[in-house]
Design brief:
With about 180 residues, this protein is mainly alpha-helical. It has 10 helices and no strands.
Length: about 180
């Protein structure tokens, strides 16, 4: 018997359906951003719950959220970073979020830097470690592009933190 959707999962699903029906509506865009999970706990309960119920995997929902950065970059970056700052790598939904945040950083570098710099040092470190946690950095040029973009914006210390996290990850054994 399929698992019953939680209230939050139903809200996300409903808002996503409305957004798909009215993709150019600022009202539905903002509604989806506002209803999208606000933190790690909500994100995992909707997209990566135990037993793979709810909206597990979540690719369409997460991609839809990131697409809205075209119209509302500050809101999307803020929420994505607020979720990612407490995550550890996992497959599917968590992986989509990880890559989406890196893409946001490349497209909206100044806004991304502002948000990352607003985090506490511990949150910043957690976020950077999460974003660097990939199996093969040679196949992940977007991360290196992000380091360059951050450096090009005069944030050498922040860029160095991203570089250090990547180098630490590259030294870890791969399962």
């Amino acid at each position: 018997m399929p698992q019953q959707l939680s209230t939050k999962s139903k809200q996300v699903k409903s808002a996503y359906i409305q957004l798909k029906e009215h993709p150019d509506s600022k009202t539905y865009q903002l509604n989806y951003i506002n209803i999208f999970p606000k933190d790690t706990t909500q994100f995992l309960s909707v997209f990566n719950p135990p037993g793979y119920g709810q909206l597990s995997d979540g690719f369409d929902y997460i991609e839809g959220f990131f697409r809205l950065a075209k119209y509302h970059p500050v809101a999307v970056i803020s929420k994505a970073v607020d979720i990612g700052k407490d995550l550890k790598w996992d497959a599917d939904a968590v992986n989509y979020l990880q890559h989406g945040i890196v893409e946001l950083g490349n497209k909206f570098t100044r806004l991304f830097i502002q948000k990352v710099n607003s985090l506490s040092p511990k949150e910043q470190s957690n976020l950077i470690t999460f974003l660097a946690d990939v199996e093969n950095h040679a196949a992940y040029p977007e991360y290196k592009q992000l380091i360059k973009a951050i450096n090009d914006h005069g944030q050498k210390d922040l860029a160095d933190q991203f570089t250090d996290a990547m180098q630490k990850r590259e030294k870890q054994p791969h399962d």
